[in-house]
Amino acid sequence: MLCRDLVAGVLLAGTLGACAAVDSTVAPRYDTVSRSIAQARNESILLNIVRASHDYPLSFSTVSQVIPQMTNTTTVGLPSFLEGPNPQCLNVNGGALGAAGAARCLTPPGTPGRDIMFGNTNNLTNAIAVQTQFTLSTQETKDFYNALLRPVDLYILDFFIRQGYSRELLFWLFMDSVEVTAGKNTIGFQFNPPYDYGCPQQDLRKRCFREWTELATITGLSVDQHSDTGGGGAKGKSGGGGGGGGTAVSRFCFDDVLGRRGQAAMEQASPGRVRELMAKYVDPGALQALSPKCGDPWPKQNPEEAGTDTLKFHVGPQKFSILPRSAYSIFQFLGRLLRQSAGGTELEIPDYIRVDELRPELSSVLEDRKLLNVVLNQSSSECFAETRFIDGYYCVPEEGSANTKRIFGLLAQLLALQTSASDLAITPTVHTVQ
Protein backbone atom coordinates (compact mmCIF):
# COMPACT_ATOMS: atom_id res chain seq x y z
CA MET A 1 0.00 0.00 0.00
CA LEU A 2 2.87 2.39 0.85
CA CYS A 3 4.54 1.74 -2.50
CA ARG A 4 1.33 2.41 -4.35
CA ASP A 5 0.85 5.73 -2.53
CA LEU A 6 4.42 6.74 -3.39
CA VAL A 7 3.93 6.04 -7.11
CA ALA A 8 0.64 7.90 -7.05
CA GLY A 9 2.31 10.95 -5.49
CA VAL A 10 5.05 11.02 -8.11
CA LEU A 11 2.56 10.76 -10.93
CA LEU A 12 0.37 13.40 -9.39
CA ALA A 13 3.35 15.80 -9.22
CA GLY A 14 4.01 15.12 -12.89
CA THR A 15 0.50 16.06 -13.86
CA LEU A 16 0.73 19.38 -12.06
CA GLY A 17 4.17 20.32 -13.43
CA ALA A 18 4.33 23.60 -15.38
CA CYS A 19 7.15 25.67 -16.85
CA ALA A 20 7.09 29.49 -17.25
CA ALA A 21 10.00 31.04 -19.16
CA VAL A 22 10.72 34.68 -19.92
CA ASP A 23 12.90 35.36 -22.94
CA SER A 24 16.09 37.06 -21.76
CA THR A 25 18.15 36.88 -24.96
CA VAL A 26 19.13 40.47 -25.73
CA ALA A 27 21.10 40.39 -29.00
CA PRO A 28 18.50 39.29 -31.60
CA ARG A 29 15.68 41.30 -30.06
CA TYR A 30 17.84 44.41 -29.73
CA ASP A 31 18.74 44.05 -33.41
CA THR A 32 15.08 43.68 -34.38
CA VAL A 33 13.95 46.71 -32.40
CA SER A 34 16.90 48.80 -33.64
CA ARG A 35 16.15 47.97 -37.27
CA SER A 36 12.44 48.69 -36.80
CA ILE A 37 13.11 52.11 -35.27
CA ALA A 38 15.54 53.02 -38.08
CA GLN A 39 13.02 51.93 -40.71
CA ALA A 40 10.25 53.94 -39.03
CA ARG A 41 12.47 57.03 -38.91
CA ASN A 42 13.42 56.78 -42.61
CA GLU A 43 9.84 56.21 -43.72
CA SER A 44 8.68 59.14 -41.59
CA ILE A 45 11.18 61.41 -43.38
CA LEU A 46 10.06 60.07 -46.77
CA LEU A 47 6.41 60.61 -45.86
CA ASN A 48 7.07 64.25 -44.94
CA ILE A 49 8.85 64.81 -48.26
CA VAL A 50 5.84 63.28 -50.04
CA ARG A 51 3.50 65.47 -47.99
CA ALA A 52 5.48 68.54 -48.99
CA SER A 53 5.25 67.53 -52.66
CA HIS A 54 1.43 67.59 -52.33
CA ASP A 55 1.33 70.79 -50.23
CA TYR A 56 0.13 68.82 -47.22
CA PRO A 57 1.10 70.01 -43.72
CA LEU A 58 4.15 68.26 -42.31
CA SER A 59 3.96 66.24 -39.13
CA PHE A 60 6.85 65.37 -36.83
CA SER A 61 6.94 62.75 -34.09
CA THR A 62 9.50 60.47 -32.52
CA VAL A 63 9.54 57.13 -30.69
CA SER A 64 10.84 57.93 -27.23
CA GLN A 65 10.50 54.49 -25.60
CA VAL A 66 10.18 50.85 -26.69
CA ILE A 67 9.37 47.99 -24.24
CA PRO A 68 9.44 44.51 -25.84
CA GLN A 69 8.38 41.51 -23.72
CA MET A 70 7.88 37.77 -24.32
CA THR A 71 6.61 35.04 -21.96
CA ASN A 72 6.53 31.31 -22.78
CA THR A 73 4.39 29.06 -20.52
CA THR A 74 4.39 25.27 -21.03
CA THR A 75 2.17 22.81 -19.05
CA VAL A 76 2.57 19.01 -19.23
CA GLY A 77 -0.03 16.63 -17.76
CA LEU A 78 -0.76 12.88 -17.93
CA PRO A 79 -3.87 11.69 -19.77
CA SER A 80 -6.90 10.52 -17.74
CA PHE A 81 -6.64 6.89 -16.58
CA LEU A 82 -7.70 4.68 -13.66
CA GLU A 83 -5.51 2.73 -11.26
CA GLY A 84 -6.42 -0.22 -9.08
CA PRO A 85 -8.08 -3.66 -9.44
CA ASN A 86 -11.43 -4.25 -11.06
CA PRO A 87 -13.64 -5.63 -8.30
CA GLN A 88 -15.83 -7.38 -10.87
CA CYS A 89 -12.91 -9.58 -11.82
CA LEU A 90 -12.50 -10.87 -8.26
CA ASN A 91 -14.23 -13.93 -6.89
CA VAL A 92 -14.62 -13.56 -3.17
CA ASN A 93 -14.65 -17.35 -2.79
CA GLY A 94 -11.44 -17.76 -4.73
CA GLY A 95 -13.03 -20.01 -7.37
CA ALA A 96 -13.55 -19.61 -11.03
CA LEU A 97 -15.58 -16.64 -12.25
CA GLY A 98 -17.61 -18.62 -14.68
CA ALA A 99 -19.07 -17.33 -17.90
CA ALA A 100 -21.19 -14.66 -16.24
CA GLY A 101 -18.26 -13.43 -14.14
CA ALA A 102 -15.96 -13.21 -17.16
CA ALA A 103 -18.52 -11.06 -18.95
CA ARG A 104 -18.72 -8.71 -15.95
CA CYS A 105 -14.90 -8.48 -15.83
CA LEU A 106 -14.76 -7.23 -19.41
CA THR A 107 -17.14 -4.39 -18.58
CA PRO A 108 -15.28 -1.34 -17.09
CA PRO A 109 -16.78 -0.41 -13.77
CA GLY A 110 -17.58 3.14 -12.67
CA THR A 111 -14.80 5.25 -11.18
CA PRO A 112 -15.92 4.83 -7.59
CA GLY A 113 -15.12 1.17 -8.01
CA ARG A 114 -11.36 1.88 -8.38
CA ASP A 115 -8.86 2.70 -5.66
CA ILE A 116 -7.11 5.66 -7.44
CA MET A 117 -8.11 7.98 -10.32
CA PHE A 118 -5.73 10.29 -12.29
CA GLY A 119 -6.91 12.95 -14.70
CA ASN A 120 -5.99 16.21 -16.46
CA THR A 121 -8.17 17.93 -19.01
CA ASN A 122 -5.07 19.26 -20.89
CA ASN A 123 -2.43 16.74 -21.71
CA LEU A 124 0.12 19.23 -23.19
CA THR A 125 -0.20 23.00 -23.53
CA ASN A 126 2.21 25.76 -24.58
CA ALA A 127 1.38 29.48 -24.57
CA ILE A 128 3.66 32.23 -25.91
CA ALA A 129 2.76 35.86 -25.19
CA VAL A 130 4.68 38.52 -27.14
CA GLN A 131 4.05 42.15 -26.23
CA THR A 132 5.64 45.31 -27.58
CA GLN A 133 4.78 48.73 -26.25
CA PHE A 134 6.18 51.95 -27.63
CA THR A 135 5.68 55.57 -26.72
CA LEU A 136 5.22 58.10 -29.51
CA SER A 137 6.09 61.70 -28.73
CA THR A 138 4.58 64.40 -30.91
CA GLN A 139 6.82 67.38 -31.61
CA GLU A 140 4.22 70.11 -31.47
CA THR A 141 5.78 72.71 -29.21
CA LYS A 142 6.67 76.35 -29.68
CA ASP A 143 10.38 75.73 -29.16
CA PHE A 144 10.48 72.91 -31.72
CA TYR A 145 8.79 74.95 -34.44
CA ASN A 146 10.87 77.98 -33.56
CA ALA A 147 13.97 75.90 -34.32
CA LEU A 148 12.37 74.15 -37.31
CA LEU A 149 11.41 77.39 -39.07
CA ARG A 150 14.57 79.36 -38.25
CA PRO A 151 17.23 79.48 -40.99
CA VAL A 152 20.01 77.00 -40.33
CA ASP A 153 22.91 78.68 -38.60
CA LEU A 154 26.36 78.68 -40.11
CA TYR A 155 27.83 76.82 -37.15
CA ILE A 156 25.40 73.93 -37.88
CA LEU A 157 26.49 73.98 -41.52
CA ASP A 158 30.06 73.77 -40.22
CA PHE A 159 29.07 70.62 -38.28
CA PHE A 160 28.00 68.88 -41.47
CA ILE A 161 31.04 70.04 -43.47
CA ARG A 162 33.26 68.47 -40.83
CA GLN A 163 31.38 65.14 -41.06
CA GLY A 164 32.54 64.57 -44.62
CA TYR A 165 29.29 65.32 -46.47
CA SER A 166 29.75 66.53 -50.02
CA ARG A 167 29.84 70.32 -49.82
CA GLU A 168 28.05 70.51 -53.16
CA LEU A 169 25.22 68.46 -51.63
CA LEU A 170 25.15 70.73 -48.57
CA PHE A 171 25.01 73.89 -50.70
CA TRP A 172 22.03 72.52 -52.66
CA LEU A 173 20.20 71.80 -49.41
CA PHE A 174 21.11 74.82 -47.30
CA MET A 175 21.39 77.65 -49.85
CA ASP A 176 17.98 79.08 -50.68
CA SER A 177 19.27 81.88 -52.87
CA VAL A 178 22.45 83.67 -53.91
CA GLU A 179 22.62 87.42 -54.49
CA VAL A 180 25.52 88.94 -56.43
CA THR A 181 26.14 92.68 -56.22
CA ALA A 182 28.48 94.45 -58.63
CA GLY A 183 28.41 98.20 -58.22
CA LYS A 184 24.76 99.19 -57.88
CA ASN A 185 23.35 96.11 -59.61
CA THR A 186 22.18 93.04 -57.69
CA ILE A 187 21.16 89.78 -59.34
CA GLY A 188 19.41 86.99 -57.45
CA PHE A 189 19.65 83.24 -58.18
CA GLN A 190 17.11 80.83 -56.72
CA PHE A 191 16.17 77.28 -57.76
CA ASN A 192 12.39 77.01 -57.32
CA PRO A 193 10.95 74.71 -60.00
CA PRO A 194 8.80 75.02 -62.00
CA TYR A 195 8.65 78.79 -61.55
CA ASP A 196 12.35 79.55 -61.38
CA TYR A 197 15.36 77.44 -62.35
CA GLY A 198 17.89 79.92 -61.02
CA CYS A 199 18.93 81.31 -64.42
CA PRO A 200 18.01 85.03 -64.45
CA GLN A 201 17.99 86.63 -67.89
CA GLN A 202 19.70 89.81 -66.67
CA ASP A 203 22.89 87.86 -65.91
CA LEU A 204 25.04 88.48 -68.97
CA ARG A 205 27.31 85.52 -68.17
CA LYS A 206 24.35 83.08 -68.26
CA ARG A 207 25.04 81.61 -64.85
CA CYS A 208 22.48 79.48 -63.03
CA PHE A 209 22.03 78.34 -59.46
CA ARG A 210 23.76 75.05 -60.27
CA GLU A 211 26.94 76.89 -61.28
CA TRP A 212 27.06 78.65 -57.93
CA THR A 213 26.92 75.36 -56.01
CA GLU A 214 29.74 74.04 -58.20
CA LEU A 215 31.82 77.21 -57.87
CA ALA A 216 31.35 77.15 -54.10
CA THR A 217 32.67 73.58 -54.11
CA ILE A 218 35.80 74.14 -56.18
CA THR A 219 36.70 77.47 -54.50
CA GLY A 220 36.61 75.91 -51.03
CA LEU A 221 33.68 77.88 -49.58
CA SER A 222 33.40 76.83 -45.96
CA VAL A 223 32.59 78.18 -42.49
CA ASP A 224 34.93 79.71 -39.94
CA GLN A 225 34.13 80.30 -36.26
CA HIS A 226 35.41 82.90 -33.87
CA SER A 227 34.96 83.33 -30.14
CA ASP A 228 34.38 86.91 -29.13
CA THR A 229 35.69 87.00 -25.55
CA GLY A 230 35.46 90.73 -25.28
CA GLY A 231 31.76 90.77 -24.49
CA GLY A 232 30.73 94.03 -26.11
CA GLY A 233 27.07 93.14 -25.91
CA ALA A 234 27.24 90.57 -28.71
CA LYS A 235 24.44 88.07 -28.83
CA GLY A 236 25.75 85.47 -31.21
CA LYS A 237 25.42 81.72 -30.99
CA SER A 238 26.94 80.16 -27.96
CA GLY A 239 29.85 77.98 -29.01
CA GLY A 240 31.28 74.91 -27.35
CA GLY A 241 34.89 75.71 -28.07
CA GLY A 242 35.14 79.33 -27.06
CA GLY A 243 37.30 78.49 -24.09
CA GLY A 244 36.83 81.75 -22.21
CA GLY A 245 33.06 81.66 -22.07
CA GLY A 246 32.74 84.16 -24.91
CA THR A 247 30.25 84.30 -27.72
CA ALA A 248 30.94 82.23 -30.84
CA VAL A 249 30.11 83.80 -34.18
CA SER A 250 30.48 82.31 -37.65
CA ARG A 251 31.24 83.54 -41.13
CA PHE A 252 31.67 82.20 -44.63
CA CYS A 253 35.30 81.83 -45.66
CA PHE A 254 37.40 80.13 -48.33
CA ASP A 255 39.60 77.16 -47.51
CA ASP A 256 42.30 76.41 -50.09
CA VAL A 257 42.62 72.77 -48.99
CA LEU A 258 38.88 72.16 -49.36
CA GLY A 259 38.98 73.90 -52.71
CA ARG A 260 41.64 71.52 -54.03
CA ARG A 261 39.69 68.55 -52.70
CA GLY A 262 36.54 69.82 -54.41
CA GLN A 263 38.35 70.24 -57.71
CA ALA A 264 39.84 66.74 -57.51
CA ALA A 265 36.45 65.19 -56.69
CA MET A 266 34.74 67.04 -59.54
CA GLU A 267 37.46 66.05 -62.00
CA GLN A 268 36.94 62.39 -61.09
CA ALA A 269 33.14 62.51 -61.18
CA SER A 270 32.75 64.89 -64.14
CA PRO A 271 35.95 65.08 -66.21
CA GLY A 272 36.40 68.47 -67.84
CA ARG A 273 33.80 70.26 -65.72
CA VAL A 274 36.38 72.15 -63.62
CA ARG A 275 38.09 73.54 -66.71
CA GLU A 276 34.73 74.56 -68.16
CA LEU A 277 33.75 76.42 -64.98
CA MET A 278 37.12 78.12 -64.70
CA ALA A 279 37.03 79.25 -68.33
CA LYS A 280 33.45 80.52 -68.38
CA TYR A 281 32.78 81.87 -64.92
CA VAL A 282 36.04 82.58 -63.09
CA ASP A 283 37.93 85.74 -63.96
CA PRO A 284 41.75 85.71 -63.98
CA GLY A 285 43.00 86.41 -60.49
CA ALA A 286 39.59 85.79 -58.91
CA LEU A 287 40.84 82.83 -56.88
CA GLN A 288 43.46 85.05 -55.26
CA ALA A 289 40.80 87.67 -54.52
CA LEU A 290 38.54 85.32 -52.54
CA SER A 291 37.85 86.89 -49.17
CA PRO A 292 37.89 86.17 -46.30
CA LYS A 293 40.23 83.21 -46.09
CA CYS A 294 39.57 80.62 -43.39
CA GLY A 295 41.85 81.29 -40.46
CA ASP A 296 42.47 84.97 -41.30
CA PRO A 297 42.15 87.43 -38.42
CA TRP A 298 38.62 88.58 -37.81
CA PRO A 299 37.94 92.29 -38.21
CA LYS A 300 36.69 94.16 -35.20
CA GLN A 301 32.92 93.91 -35.13
CA ASN A 302 30.34 96.06 -33.53
CA PRO A 303 27.66 94.33 -31.41
CA GLU A 304 25.10 94.36 -34.23
CA GLU A 305 27.45 92.58 -36.64
CA ALA A 306 28.56 90.03 -34.05
CA GLY A 307 24.98 89.26 -33.09
CA THR A 308 24.15 87.59 -36.40
CA ASP A 309 25.90 85.02 -38.53
CA THR A 310 27.78 86.57 -41.42
CA LEU A 311 26.35 85.30 -44.71
CA LYS A 312 28.43 87.49 -46.99
CA PHE A 313 31.79 87.25 -48.73
CA HIS A 314 33.69 89.00 -51.49
CA VAL A 315 35.31 87.96 -54.74
CA GLY A 316 37.22 91.01 -55.89
CA PRO A 317 34.77 93.88 -56.40
CA GLN A 318 31.74 91.57 -56.30
CA LYS A 319 29.78 91.07 -53.08
CA PHE A 320 27.91 87.83 -52.42
CA SER A 321 25.07 87.26 -50.00
CA ILE A 322 23.56 83.83 -49.32
CA LEU A 323 20.13 83.32 -47.78
CA PRO A 324 20.10 79.97 -45.96
CA ARG A 325 17.17 77.61 -45.69
CA SER A 326 15.48 76.39 -42.54
CA ALA A 327 14.95 72.69 -41.80
CA TYR A 328 11.30 73.14 -42.78
CA SER A 329 12.18 74.77 -46.11
CA ILE A 330 14.59 71.89 -46.87
CA PHE A 331 11.60 69.54 -46.73
CA GLN A 332 9.66 71.92 -48.97
CA PHE A 333 12.55 72.09 -51.44
CA LEU A 334 12.82 68.29 -51.59
CA GLY A 335 9.05 68.08 -52.02
CA ARG A 336 9.26 70.33 -55.08
CA LEU A 337 12.00 68.15 -56.53
CA LEU A 338 9.88 65.04 -55.92
CA ARG A 339 6.86 66.59 -57.59
CA GLN A 340 9.05 67.59 -60.53
CA SER A 341 10.55 64.09 -60.92
CA ALA A 342 7.14 62.43 -60.53
CA GLY A 343 5.80 64.33 -63.54
CA GLY A 344 4.08 67.19 -61.76
CA THR A 345 2.66 70.18 -63.57
CA GLU A 346 5.41 71.83 -65.61
CA LEU A 347 5.21 75.37 -66.89
CA GLU A 348 6.57 76.14 -70.33
CA ILE A 349 10.35 76.06 -70.20
CA PRO A 350 11.88 79.34 -71.45
CA ASP A 351 14.31 79.08 -74.33
CA TYR A 352 17.21 80.50 -72.32
CA ILE A 353 17.06 77.62 -69.78
CA ARG A 354 19.52 74.86 -70.61
CA VAL A 355 18.33 71.28 -70.33
CA ASP A 356 21.04 70.39 -67.81
CA GLU A 357 19.73 73.13 -65.47
CA LEU A 358 16.21 71.73 -65.14
CA ARG A 359 17.03 69.21 -62.41
CA PRO A 360 19.72 69.28 -59.73
CA GLU A 361 22.73 67.14 -60.53
CA LEU A 362 25.91 66.83 -58.53
CA SER A 363 29.18 67.17 -60.41
CA SER A 364 31.50 66.15 -57.57
CA VAL A 365 29.92 62.85 -56.39
CA LEU A 366 31.22 59.90 -58.36
CA GLU A 367 28.72 57.22 -57.25
CA ASP A 368 25.51 59.21 -57.72
CA ARG A 369 24.61 62.34 -59.67
CA LYS A 370 20.95 62.66 -58.63
CA LEU A 371 20.26 64.87 -55.67
CA LEU A 372 17.01 63.02 -54.86
CA ASN A 373 15.96 59.61 -56.13
CA VAL A 374 12.38 58.64 -55.25
CA VAL A 375 10.21 56.66 -57.67
CA LEU A 376 6.42 56.55 -57.81
CA ASN A 377 4.47 53.39 -58.67
CA GLN A 378 7.48 51.66 -60.18
CA SER A 379 8.46 48.08 -59.47
CA SER A 380 11.57 47.78 -57.34
CA SER A 381 12.88 44.65 -55.69
CA GLU A 382 14.51 46.50 -52.79
CA CYS A 383 13.55 49.81 -51.18
CA PHE A 384 15.64 51.72 -48.67
CA ALA A 385 12.42 53.43 -47.55
CA GLU A 386 8.85 53.17 -48.78
CA THR A 387 5.48 54.71 -48.07
CA ARG A 388 2.02 55.12 -49.55
CA PHE A 389 0.12 58.31 -50.18
CA ILE A 390 -2.97 59.42 -52.05
CA ASP A 391 -1.44 58.95 -55.50
CA GLY A 392 0.34 55.63 -54.96
CA TYR A 393 3.44 53.90 -53.69
CA TYR A 394 6.72 55.77 -53.18
CA CYS A 395 10.06 53.98 -52.98
CA VAL A 396 13.67 54.99 -52.50
CA PRO A 397 15.54 52.28 -54.45
CA GLU A 398 18.47 50.62 -52.74
CA GLU A 399 20.61 51.08 -55.84
CA GLY A 400 21.42 54.49 -57.24
CA SER A 401 20.28 56.46 -54.18
CA ALA A 402 23.51 57.29 -52.37
CA ASN A 403 22.75 61.01 -52.12
CA THR A 404 19.15 60.37 -51.05
CA LYS A 405 20.34 58.14 -48.21
CA ARG A 406 22.80 60.81 -47.14
CA ILE A 407 20.00 63.39 -47.15
CA PHE A 408 17.83 61.16 -44.95
CA GLY A 409 20.67 60.81 -42.46
CA LEU A 410 21.33 64.54 -42.58
CA LEU A 411 17.66 65.39 -41.99
CA ALA A 412 17.49 62.99 -39.04
CA GLN A 413 20.55 64.66 -37.52
CA LEU A 414 19.23 68.14 -38.25
CA LEU A 415 15.88 67.38 -36.60
CA ALA A 416 17.68 65.97 -33.56
CA LEU A 417 19.77 69.15 -33.32
CA GLN A 418 16.56 71.17 -33.42
CA THR A 419 14.86 69.08 -30.71
CA SER A 420 15.25 69.59 -26.97
CA ALA A 421 14.07 67.40 -24.10
CA SER A 422 11.15 69.75 -23.44
CA ASP A 423 9.83 69.03 -26.95
CA LEU A 424 9.14 65.44 -25.88
CA ALA A 425 6.80 66.31 -23.03
CA ILE A 426 3.65 65.00 -24.71
CA THR A 427 4.11 61.22 -24.61
CA PRO A 428 0.90 59.22 -25.06
CA THR A 429 1.16 55.46 -25.47
CA VAL A 430 -0.41 54.93 -28.84
CA HIS A 431 -0.18 51.22 -29.62
CA THR A 432 0.17 47.83 -28.02
CA VAL A 433 0.78 44.67 -30.08
CA GLN A 434 0.19 41.25 -28.52
If you had to describe this structure to a student in words, what would you say it looks like?
This protein is an alpha+beta fold and 434 residues long. It has a domain of 212 residues. The chain is 33% helix and 25% strand. A 6-stranded antiparallel sheet has the order 8-7-6-13-12-11. A 4-stranded antiparallel sheet has the order 1-2-5-17. β12 and β13 form a beta hairpin. α2 packs across α11. The longest helix is centred in the N-terminal third of the chain and has 27 residues. The radius of gyration is 37 Å and the shape is elongated. The C terminus is likely disordered.
What is the topology?
Elements: H1 2-16, E1 18-22, H2 27-53, E2 61-76, E3 81-83, H3 98-105, E4 116-118, E5 124-138, H4 142-149, H5 154-162, H6 167-174, E6 175-182, E7 185-192, E8 196-197, H7 209-218, E9 221-228, E10 247-254, H8 256-269, H9 273-281, E11 290-291, H10 303-306, E12 312-315, E13 318-324, H11 327-341, E14 375-376, E15 383-389, E16 392-397, H12 402-417, E17 429-433
Antiparallel strand pairs: 1-2, 2-5, 3-4, 5-17, 6-7, 6-13, 7-8, 9-10, 11-12, 12-13, 14-16, 15-16
Helix pairs in contact: 2-11, 2-12, 6-7
Helix segment count? Answer: 12
Beginning-to-end CA distance, first to last residue? 50 Å
Number of strands: 17
Work out the strand percent.
25-35%
- Relative helix content: 25-40%
What structural class do the secondary elements suggest? Answer: alpha+beta
Low-pLDDT residue spans: 10-21, 231-244, 423-434
Query: Largest sheet, described in full?
Result: 6 strands, antiparallel
What is the typical, i.e. mean, pLDDT?
A: 76
Order of adjacent strands in the largest pleated sheet: 8-7-6-13-12-11
* Rg calculated over all Cα atoms: 37 Å
Given the C-alpha coordinates, what overall shape results? elongated
N-to-C order of helices and strands:
HEHEEHEEHHHEEEHEEHHEHEEHEEEHE
